[in-house]
Amino acid sequence: MTVTVATLGFPRIGPRRELKFALEKFWSGKSTEAELLEAAAGLRAAAWARQAALGADWLPSNDFSFYDHVLDTSLMLGAIPERYGVAAGTADLATYFAMARGTTGESAGCAHGHGHTAQEMTKWFDTNYHYMVPELAAGQKLALSSSKIVDEYREAKALGYETRPVLLGPVTWLSLAKGRDVDPFDFLDEVLGLYSAVLTQLAHAGAEWVQIDEPILALDLDERQRAAITRVYAKLPRLGLKIMLATYFGALEDNLTLAVNLPVAGLHVDLVRAPDQFDKVLVAAPKGLLLSLGVIDGRNIWRADLEKLLDRIEPVAATRDIVLAPSCSLLHVPVDLALEPKLDDEIKQWLAFAAQKIDELVTLKDALNGGRDWVAEKLAASGRAAAARKVSPRIHDPLVAARTASITEAMRSRQSPYAARAAVQAGILALPPFPTTTIGSFPQTAEVRHARAEHNRGNLGDAAYERFLREETERTVRWQEEAGLDMLVHGEFERNDMVQYFGEQLAGFAFTVNGWVQSYGSRCVRPPILFGDVSRPKPMTVEWWRYAQGLTARPMKGMLTGPVTILNWSFVRDDQPRSASCAQIALAIRDEVVDLERAGCKAIQIDEAALREGLPLRKRDWQAYLDWAVDCFRLSAAGVGDATQIHTHMCYSEFNDILPAIGAMDTDVISIETARSQMELLEGFAAYRYPSAIGPGVYDIHAPRVPSVDEIVRLMQLAQAHLAPEQLWVNPDCGLKTRKWEEVKPAIDAMVSAARELRVRV
Ligand code: GLN
Ligand code: ZN
């Protein structure tokens, strides 16, 4: 039986973020469209060449995107909202970028008088990749508006590569779409017609196969979605192309029977997230269905134990043709481990990035086709790395193990209930009603970023950099005093990123130089690699806090990132449950919280920006996640006495379905994003009888617009319709690091004036 190797998609940003730089050059008017197109073609050619050289048999095309593959699909279908003023069928690159970035180049939701807002952006399933949410309005006309998929197929062919084009499936696309006064599924027939046309074009261009991604099949589906799947895949396979239907990010479970019985030629299943579905899929899959086994982790950076995998796959390969593949597109991992000069050899041998993952798949293929001896050396190396990782003292710290083993419920509980704590804290902090504060960061100006870059390059010495940061901090503290804020922050100028800053100071984390992963558009992140047991060798923020508090008599908040957020924004261990890694991080943060208190800090904010993002894809798994996530937060926070006020911040606007968990975090103050939702969000908190204090964000920091005093007063009055005045704080929606001082100053002035007005009215 034959074994082949496929990649479902390769990172599109390029090994050194070439796409990012090409895009930003074009957007700033420093290059022409022709130059951008040429750069993109070069990246595609390089990606095909690389994958082919590594030995992949099935190369993807149309996995490239200038911004986002969901947006590509929207454009293909001509789902162009009216505000862009372009009829379906006539879209060009300018329309595409307008949909991606708005016509003023601002991100989603930033209406400020002129230009058109971008499409909304949100997280792609449970990844840290963001897609542009498709929009559909009643009566909208769709029409094919992009020939990208056919063009890129032809482009590869001209270069000598026979590819399997990748297309986001219609049912997933409709499921992700937002309808204005219409149910997106009302467009099913129209969308199906357009997909049929595209597939027909591909067949004419000479394609034999197409990969259609329907990750939605790993989620809870309703009847309408299931019916749509049946309908779509009754029709699409009849158009002359063989379809590899790709599912990923989880198990098919209750959708298994549906999926294996569709008249498609192949089915891809994720066996990393869902190893247990292997046997079930084998039993259920008809003989003629080509199975694509996602055996190498497309979501994480660990090297696989190839012999162990072979033991699983060999018996299957003896009975049927199989394709070996990463669990999902390699979009979610960095390109090439060979570009990491700074990672030491011990850690490096445990890792595999996109290129190395394809090499692993090819090794598996060679072993299955030619016998294990054929690749004995590679298998041995993989086995040695796996064995070393199991026992390395770099990973396993007995002190951490002992500490996590002795965590008790008492360690997660504050000394007294909220009401008692609040009374003690009120006596100490003596804050006015409607106290004002900010979320933590102040503008990371070009100057701040430049100083950091120079320091990293070694051009700016430690002492000079430190002096620069102190001056910046002092100026910010002084300004906050002048502005009349009640609880101050130090401004976070010393932090490159709210997770990386802590990861760099904790044992158990490693960092890459070129390990970039696309977050959205041209924006890339380098997630920390959590490889070992976590501990905190020494205090991380206490000195900065002490310095800042020393400048003022007003209370200075300690500022930390919470354990769940650090976990969710990192590549994490696959040799222990996420919850175990999270508990270790929680203990490290707890140490910092206790040290801050000891240094005299009266209020400590532990940000959990990413707590909600970690929710599992299946509703049934939510509670278990929330239980351990909240436990970890409490563990990080509850080491302090009643007098210390614990804050948290969460930057999203969906809380209703997780309110009990938010309540269980037992914070003294929570700040949340609400400005854009007219405080409606607080209804849920009120209905739930949320007991402690809330700072509902009074203005949107994602846009440069400065709010007026009146509008803030009005918003806070709306808030009082739901919550008692003594529960309310006044703060912006989120940190101010992306804004300019010219915007921040008048906005905060307006906020403070509004709070003063509210105090008079009470
Ligand atoms: N303290 C952080 C800041 O102000 C919080 C940011 C966030 O949660 N996204 O930047
Ligand atoms: Zn935020």
Molecular structure report:
Helix content is 41%, strand content 12%. With 762 residues, it is of the alpha/beta class. The strands form six sheets. It has an eight-stranded parallel sheet. Bound molecules: glutamine and zinc ion. Glutamine (GLN) binds at residues 439-441, 492, 498, 559, 607, 609, 649, 651, 734-735, 737. Zn(2+) binds at residues 649, 651, 673, 734. L-homocysteine binds at residues 439-441, 492, 607. Keywords: Amino-acid biosynthesis, Metal-binding, Methionine biosynthesis, Methyltransferase, Repeat, Transferase, Zinc. The active site is at residue 702.
How is this fold's topology laid out?
Elements lengths: L2 E3 L12 H10 L5 H22 L4 E3 L7 H9 L15 H9 L19 E3 L6 E3 L2 E3 L10 H11 L4 E6 L1 H7 L1 E3 L7 H18 L3 E5 L9 H13 L6 E5 L9 H5 L5 E5 L6 H8 L5 E7 L9 H12 L4 E5 L18 H4 L5 H17 L5 H16 L6 H8 L12 H12 L16 H12 L4 H22 L16 H4 L3 E4 L6 E4 L2 E3 L3 E7 L6 H8 L7 E5 L1 H6 L9 H21 L4 E5 L14 H16 L7 E6 L8 H6 L4 E4 L9 H6 L5 E4 L12 H12 L20 H21 L1
Parallel strand pairs: 1-12, 2-6, 5-7, 6-8, 8-9, 9-10, 10-11, 11-12, 17-18, 18-19, 19-20, 20-21
Antiparallel strand pairs: 3-4, 13-16, 14-15
Helix pairs in contact: 1-2, 5-7, 11-13, 17-18, 22-23, 26-27
